[in-house]
Amino acid sequence: MPFSRGRKPVTSKISKLQSSKSKASENQDEATRVKRSSTPPKGAAKKRTAFLDITNVNGLSFALISFRDICVPYILHGRPNHCLSITSEEQEKELQKREPLADEPRADPLLKDPLPVNLQPPEIPPEFDIDSEHAGDCIFSAGYAKEIFDNIRSREDTFILHDYMATQPFLNENMRAILVDWLVEVQENYELNHETLYLAVKLMDHYLSRMGTNKESLQLVGCAAMLIASKFEERIPPSIDDFLYICDDAYKRSQLITMEASILNVLNFDINIPVPYHFLRRYAKCVGANMETLTLARYFCELSLQDMVFLPVRGSLLASACLLIALVTKDLGGWTPILQFHSSYAVGDLAPVVRKLHHMLSKPSHSKLEAIKSKYSHSVFFEVAKTPNVDLEKLEQFL
Description:
Cyclin_N, mainly alpha, single chain, globular, Cyclin A, domain 1, disordered N terminus
């Protein structure tokens, strides 16, 4: 593995994780993975609640107080100084006579009418509506999905990157590509979300664009970025010890914690960076693409993480270009009006990025950068890495 300073190569650690994973599946005990272990590490504090042990239910006694006894005194007098037993007619009379409380908002006499507030989402033409099927599910926020993604797109203006290698005298593009390849292996071995991988690469690039780093500390930057991304995206993130182990103990615990704090301070703790993976799922839904086509687009998108040519490209634009190549490769057509409506990109906007992606896919693979290709050659990912590259002339017909 790259940039390792330990006595043992990092690849040995990766192989150990893979062998332990296979043994776990044979014993039908997948809960023993390092990442998912719920046992606190040695010397860690015991888990506890902030105020009381909520598991000790039998030792607690609760007094049942009626809603009327509490709320009626508050409504009538502003405090529960006594419990009343009144009828609804008496309650209405008391409410009309009472004075407003000190902290109760009063109507502004200068304003005759209340200010208009528009809480309705913008109307979407029926032919472009892709969220109506989830209209009754509050989790999907179907009525505001378009606004949510438009807001994420607007945040991309805050996170525009540039080619920073000219300001890094000790680094080059090949070192960065090897580090991204290693991060893909970490994501695979700890079974992290794909969003975690994309966010980790973004955090690393934003940090390196502002801070100089030597070759010995480059893997530490990537490791700390993956740690931060895991805390942001994962339900159960790997621990610091897990990341130290995957680095073959090349760094100390204090070094990793210090680098984590350095990245957060340099980025001003603004780590909610839009990544192309979010947009790719959204745009694939517009055309009803199946999982194989979506996975092929994800394969192209993940390969682009290693190439600095795509560093300045917005995540939404990159996701659109990857999906277009996948659609053409699978003979599913080109860029449709519904895709243009939801992405706000015309075919002319995609053409330069699509050509760069095709050039990247046409180049021979690097012998040291095999993690992504190996990952997407598995049957779980429909073996999309083995899909023949689409002909450029055929692709140009859709551009």
